Write a sequence for this structure.
């Protein structure tokens, strides 16, 4: 993330700005928010996948694969 904090911030802001209002839910619960759904959509997005491949050194490896074992 240090390599591209502005790109990450812009992507997060793009997804948080999405309109996820639901008239049926709003009629039952006033002021309901669907921010978790926005985060899930971003997590599964092609944009995040592309950004990850651009800024992460080894995007297909886990932390455990990268640490040196004794």
């Amino acid at each position: 993330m240090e390599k591209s904090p502005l790109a990450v911030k812009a992507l997060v802001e793009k997804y948080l700005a999405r309109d996820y209002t639901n008239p049926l839910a709003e009629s039952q619960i006033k002021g309901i928010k669907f921010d978790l759904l926005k985060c899930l959509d971003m997590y599964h997005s092609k944009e995040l996948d592309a950004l990850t491949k651009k800024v992460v050194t080894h995007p297909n490896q886990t932390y455990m694969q990268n640490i040196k074992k004794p």
